[in-house]
Amino acid sequence: MDLFEQKFKESLKSNVSLLDRIMHYIIKRKGKQMRPMFVFLSAKLFGKFEENTYRAASMIELLHTATLVHDDVIDEADFRRGFFSINALWRNKISVLVGDFLLSRGLLLAVKHEEFGLLKIMSTAVQDMSEGELLQIEKARKLDITEEIYFDIIRQKTATLIAACCASGANSVGESKEVVERMCLFGEKTGIAFQIKDDLFDYTQSPIIGKPTGIDIREQKMTLPLIYTLNTVTKKEKNYIINIIKNHHKNDKKVAEVISFVNKNGGLEYAEKAMHNYHNSAIEILNQFEDNEAKNALILLLDFVVNRKK
């Protein structure tokens, strides 16, 4: 990871001093680096490690960082991981251009080294993530998201990038198309479990503020605990909850009422069960491969996904 950090910094260098300042700001405030870890461990699962693996990890991180910068513009967010977002400091126009720069750097990294398999994996991920975001926006207007559509959205928005991590790791060490597809599926199931865990945080006590945040409800996002609950209660109760989400989603008392309602009607238990099902399916895929240190580390990383506290 230390060597990856050096190579990643190299991939961000620019002749434009403004860009260099922004890139330095981004590097200093990076998160857990979980996605590059999935790339490296997916390569080491097969007992090999190549220079291509560093490129794959850099491409993933460039793509992920680009989506975060663009997401903050879309969401009008002023903070990212407790620090000012790029758009808060440099405004939207520069933020959009920075996101474009990061995305193009990632794609050019593959083209320069003729990594066309990697380029296909990354381009597919960009397409899926964009479609998932637009599908969520389209459905959010009517609040008519079914469980099937919900899984389509999170598969495209979140899981596709972790799937790309695992697929690109296997691809970087020359594994067969079949193995790359199996690792892609492992990453997809891991990513879905990751997103369900995020959804559960909205309804469970935050260690920071001591109560549920209700952010998804305030943003009128239909997540699995809520979708399940609305499908199992009476029509009158369903209409009442939907009315709150449509017209009273900024009211703290009403948001707390929705959280309590979902808790009482088994929404959290249902979502937790679904999360563990995806976790177990991902483990089953890993168990098709030989035991080694990387496999054990992937299992630990997968356990972290479903057991993390934030």
Task: Compose a concise summary of this entry.
The chain is mainly α.
Task: Characterise this structure.
The chain has 310 residues and is mostly helical. The chain has one domain: Farnesyl Diphosphate Synthase (Orthogonal Bundle), CATH 1.10.600. Helices cover 75% and strands 1% of the residues. It has helices at residues 2-11, 17-28, 34-44, 51-74, 86-112, 116-140, 147-172, 177-201, 215-218, 224-232, 235-247, 252-264, 267-286, 293-307, and strands at residues 79-80, 83-84. Strands 1-2 form a two-stranded antiparallel sheet. α1 (2-11) packs across α4, α4 runs antiparallel to α5 and α4 (51-74) runs antiparallel to α7 (147-172). It is globular, with a radius of gyration of 20 Å. The model has no long low-confidence stretch (mean pLDDT 87).
Features:
two-stranded antiparallel sheet; 1% strand; globular; 310 residues; Farnesyl Diphosphate Synthase; mainly alpha; 75% helix
| Helix run count | 14
Q: What overall geometry do the principal axes of the alpha carbons give?
A: globular
Largest sheet: 2 strands, antiparallel
Unreliable sequence segments? none
- Please estimate the helix content: over 70%
Question: How confident is the prediction overall: mean pLDDT?
Answer: 87
Number of domains: 1
CATH-assigned fold name: Farnesyl Diphosphate Synthase
Name the strands of the widest sheet in spatial order: 1-2
What letter string, H or E per element, gives the SSE order? HHHHEEHHHHHHHHHH
Strand content: under 5%
CATH class descriptor:
Mainly Alpha
What is the fourth-level CATH superfamily?
A: Farnesyl Diphosphate Synthase
- The CATH architecture can be named as Orthogonal Bundle
Over the alpha carbons, how many angstroms does the gyration radius reach?
20 Å
Structural class: mainly alpha
Number of strands: 2
| Distance between the amino and carboxyl termini | 22 Å
